Amino acid sequence: MTAHPPPRRKARPAPRSVSLPARERWQPLLDLALAEDVGAGDLTSDLTIEPGRTGRARIEAREELVVCGLAIARAVFEAVDPQLRIEQPHAIADGCDVGPGEVLMRIDGAYASILTAERTALNFLGRLCGVASQTRRLVERVSDLAVDLVDTRKTTPGWRHLEKYAVAVGGGVNHRVGLYDAVLVKDNHIAAAGSLEAAVTRALEGAPDGVPVQVEVESESMADQAVALGCRFLLLDNLDPATIARIVDRHAPGVLLEASGGIGPANLRAFAETGVARISMGALTHSVRCADVALEVDLLPPGTEAEADRSRRTP
């Protein structure tokens, strides 16, 4: 039996700055979400709240979570009413760990506008905090090993740029965004091309400069053949840890190796300890529970100093 070297270890990485996707990537989604929720208007708020009545509300965490999506939530409120004033506590930003009761955002202005925007803002914030929190939990399970957790294209339609942003905020690594920015030769491509050799040869010869070419393999012999054909980036699909460890012994570090398929929280560490450089998990995005965030109105009785100050500042 081959003796496997001990898994590579790494220090826990420092938090890294992640850039929000360009606004044109998510503004249409925000517009669609408001259109389907608000429609011709918020009947309940219009009927129950006196016109011009202003006040303050806060968004808070109801559980431990990783903050993600504050800029999107802010944009929802601003789209409903540009006169709303929005503040974030100084220490709160995307990527922060917070606990139950911690305030993520304060909104000041017309109560009707705040409540009209409430659900759409919370839907974005809850979903993105959920993805970031799930990613952070899984990353921390293997944080002492030299392995990256990578997302997939198993994302909510229309949400891909935002969900991949949330993965990165949680400490994961983004795989290709779509079919246009990388080559991944999968089993169906191989079948349609006629053979592994035909598919890999065409991909390697035709890929534009700088575009990575990755090949999915389902056995040790396929891995050996793909490497012999010149591929230096393999996706080891639905292989058990022992098989993956043998492939790592033969081909790493000269070949970038990524494990995928059937990997979840319960067996993640076993796969990470094989020595692969990357583990891709659809579970980072496709089966995430929304984080529990809520909006609460701060009631300030008329005539108080805060109410008077707010009235002076209201246009």
What this model shows, in words?
The protein is α/β, with parallel strands linked by helices. It folds into two domains: 23-131 and 290-313, Quinolinate phosphoribosyl transferase, N-terminal domain (Aldehyde Oxidoreductase, domain 3); 138-284, TIM Barrel, CATH 3.20.20.70. Helices cover 40% and strands 17% of the residues. It contains eleven helices and twelve strands. The strands form three sheets. A six-stranded parallel β-sheet has the order 6-11-10-9-8-7. Strands 3-5-1-12 form a four-stranded antiparallel β-sheet, sandwiched between helices. The chain has a two-stranded antiparallel sheet with strand order 2-4. Residues 1-15 and 305-315 have low confidence and may be disordered.
How would the blueprint of this fold be written?
Blueprint: H1 23-38, H2 43-48, E1 54-61, E2 65-66, H3 70-80, E3 85-87, E4 97-98, E5 103-110, H4 111-141, E6 148-150, H5 160-169, E7 183-185, H6 187-193, H7 196-206, E8 213-217, H8 220-228, E9 233-237, H9 241-251, E10 256-260, H10 268-272, E11 278-280, E12 293-298, H11 305-313
Parallel strand pairs: 6-11, 7-8, 8-9, 9-10, 10-11
Antiparallel strand pairs: 1-5, 1-12, 2-4, 3-5
Helix pairs in contact: 1-3, 1-4, 3-4, 4-5, 6-7, 8-9
